[in-house]
Prior knowledge:
single chain, alpha/beta, nine-stranded mixed beta sheet, five-stranded parallel beta sheet, 17 helices, 18 strands, 38% helix, globular
Amino acid sequence: MDASLIDRLAQAKVLVIGDVLLDRFVEGTVRRVSPEAPVPVLNHTRERSLLGGAGNAAANLLAYGASVTLVGVAGADSGAEELRRFCDGFERLTCRLIEDESRPTTVKTRYLSGWHQLLRVDAEAVDDLPASVAHDLLAAAREALPDADVVILSDYAKGVLGAKTIASLIGAAREAGTPVIADPKKPQAAVFAGATLVTPNTLELERFTGRPVDSDAAAEEACRSVLETCGLDAILVTRGHAGMTLVAHNADALHVRAENRRVFDVTGAGDTVVATLAAAMAIGVPLADAVRLANAAAGVAVAKPGTATVHPRELKQALGVEASANVLARQEGLDQVAHWKSQGLLVGFTNGCFDLLHRGHLHSLEQASRRVDRLVVGINSDSSAKRLKGPGRPVQDAETRAAVLAALRFVDLVIPFEEDTPADLIGAVLPDVLFKGADYAENEVVGGDVVKANGGRVELIPLLPGHSTTGTVGRMKSAE
């Protein structure tokens, strides 16, 4: 697949309608159990929020550079104010949140220790919208429709997309000649009659049909039964580790295998799929190719913790059309970090030569990645590594070392630096968390004072004993 196709996703104009919510994360560490009840005590460190539900589909589109109009409903409360402030921070996003005083803004609050979820608390109402609110929602959607290449109906079963509303939206889009992608939570597929594409997961398809979907043949049969009875153009079932199955009228089924990645967190992966499908369809990509693109994007998303978006460089790397897409020069890397911070993501930083990558390196990097949303690694240039490590080092050149690091699932960005220490780079990145090995004291960590002065923190990662590049090089020389 041509890399220019991924760049053209930025040309898409998409209207997203549905259940907009806040994904809120309360983070801390657990060191003891409460004496009052057998529950862990979370030592609070920070809180952050992300766009969720239909908002996450919009955020994924924005990550591709697309233009988005987001139409949804919020309450008359502080959650609504936070949602609007959040939306105001995105370029290329037009947000129309209709106020409904009878319901709270939907907020999912997750309490986390590291990336271990202890508890989720939902503030929500799931009843259908009052008639006047539904009328205003439809009016806002119809007003935005002429500027849209594709419409996404993002149904999270929070009451925004009632059956009558869905029928009216699909009818208006059909009349305008605009494709509609529906991400369903309703138990009946017929509610989405007239949609161009519906994207249930396996469980949702099983609810539609009342039959198990446990093989390619079963998936195809279930999809065809839905097409025959529900007036849809095509159906794409997302099947987790089994991949995806696309069935359209008068066409052979397409079975696409899941990307061979370790799954970290499937939260929001469906939003990544529909967003990628919509952006691809908006620029004229055939449906089968759009599905392959969405499958690759899903593979990137599930390898990340929490609600995640996919950057074009990550998608290019997943498709093999750009090598070492996560290795960037300093300014380009700083631009990427700034983009992540604008999305409310927690950015971590660590550094080293990483010459002859070993198990100790992997342990430290993985532990660091579990504590943040994005992990940035500063890597010494060849001249810097030589000054630090002495003659004969580094064994591998900087380009090779950076490429090996970038290939790791727990490294999001690699930035080389020429200086003897990463102090200047740390001062430019200003990470939320600065990681270093536990062989250092906190007051010895280069850049720690700058990070803490900016409201961040320093974390020391315990080392695996017996693993070092110097020791490996020594054993190699002894064996000569």
